[in-house]
Amino acid sequence: MKKMAFFIAVLLITSLLAGCSIIVPNGVYGYVYIRSYWMQSEEEGVDIASDEEIDVLITGQETAPPGYRPLVGARVEIRHNITLIGRERSTDFSGRFEIRDLQSGASTLKVTHWELRNPITRSLQVPSSGVIRFDDEAAEDYWVIIGVQNYQDGNKSSAGSDADASRMYDVLYNQNRLPAEYSLLRNSSATKSAIASAIKYFVDAARSVEDHLVIYFSGFSGADYLSPYDDRGPGLSKQSITDAELEFWLRGFPGYVTVIVDGSYSETMADGRPLQPLALKKPKYTVLTGAQWNRQAQYFEDFGGGVFTYFLWQGLLYGSADGDYDGFITPAELYSYTYTEMVRFYQDKDPSVRHYPTIHRGNSQHVPIFRYR
Q1: Does some domain include residue 288?
Q2: What is the pLDDT of residue 2?
């Protein structure tokens, strides 16, 4: 017995001197999900092969979030200092994997699958004992809030748009309980370059496919474009922001993207028509607008701003848009609420001024953008 204990002690000391680590029964488990681009209807004409890189979510969440499905049969391995450790595993029908008997410390998780253009890697910290759940960093929301009433050329103005932006910013900044960062651009600060820079800043800051970028715009808009402060013509100027250009700025964001536009003919930003046939009409984007493709957005003096934004604000401020009463408000819930309220508001108004919200239902339509309790 003493000889055996002595032998084990010598073995342990020899291993430590040789720089080897002792493998303990610890490990990690999680789930691998992939964006469900294939769920988009063929009628919408989305060319999957030419779309942006497919996003993968590796998380401890047991249920695939909206817009995702389990990635079945994916190869999952753990590497420590470039060396493969532990046993490789494949995800099951629910996307779940579990790997035990790993070396503790900083490691890299690698996922490969025939549906992925390139392997997906994530950093993780293997615990000294027990099996932990793999989780991405906490999701973050990013808001770019834009309102332009007085334009540089002096010829165009959208009554109440700067007030609309301030109203949205106030309710979001002061009452939204979701972790979020905000950028408010009003009037002269809302130039084309400033808007592009604000979007790029958040695109670069995002780290998780669960992050959510929301663009809110109130101001002059037309068929397939938005007008920043320094626009010099009705959609013909290089300073206009076309649907295709906005999509180009947004496509690098790794997570969900929602675009909200209070402007005339704003449905055209995601209607699948020229200037760019697809542009924002893709699964990656949810687009909520205040007016149909052939309707002008209206200002109502008693509201102090646009009709659409007023009901957006009301839906957030009092939680009225929370259709399932879970404390969270999603783009789809905002659409349902604003549509109902605007139909009621316009029922006794001149038909020529009526306009109603529209929605392109992308992957973020059921992802919360506001929490009020």
Answers
A1: yes
A2: 44
Residues 127 and 145 in one domain: no
Domain membership of residue 95 as a residue range: 22-133
Sequence-distant (≥ 6) Cβ neighbours of residue 72 within 8 angstroms: 91, 92, 93, 95
Q: Which residues, at least 6 apart from 83, have a Cβ–Cβ distance to it below 8 Å?
A: none
Alpha-carbon gap, residue 270 to 277, rounded angstroms: 9
Single out the residue in 98, 113, 133 at which a domain terminates: 133
For 340, counting Cβ atoms within 10 Å of its Cβ (0-12 exposed, 13-18 middle, 19+ buried), the class is middle
The DSSP secondary-structure symbol of 55 reads P
Q: Which of 85, 108, 133 is the last residue of a domain?
A: 133
pLDDT tens string 231-242:
986 666 789 999
User: Number of folded domains in the chain?
Assistant: 2
How confident is the model at residue 45, as a pLDDT?
A: 40
* Residue linked to tokens 């663009």: 215
State which H helix or E strand residue 88 sits in.
strand 83-90
Judgement on whether residues 46 and 182 belong to the same structural domain of the protein: no
Cα–Cα distance list, 54 to 115, 118, 209, 311, 357 (Å): 9, 10, 11, 35, 30
| Regions of the chain where pLDDT drops below 50 | 1-24, 38-54, 136-137
Please check whether residues 350 and 279 belong to one and the same domain.
yes
295 plus 334 within the same structural domain = yes
Residue 329: inside a domain, yes or no?
Answer: yes
- Type of residue at 16: L
Helix (H) or strand (E) holding 85: strand 83-90
List, for residues 85-124, the tens digit of each pLDDT value. 556 889 999 999 998 887 777 777 889 999 888 888 777 7
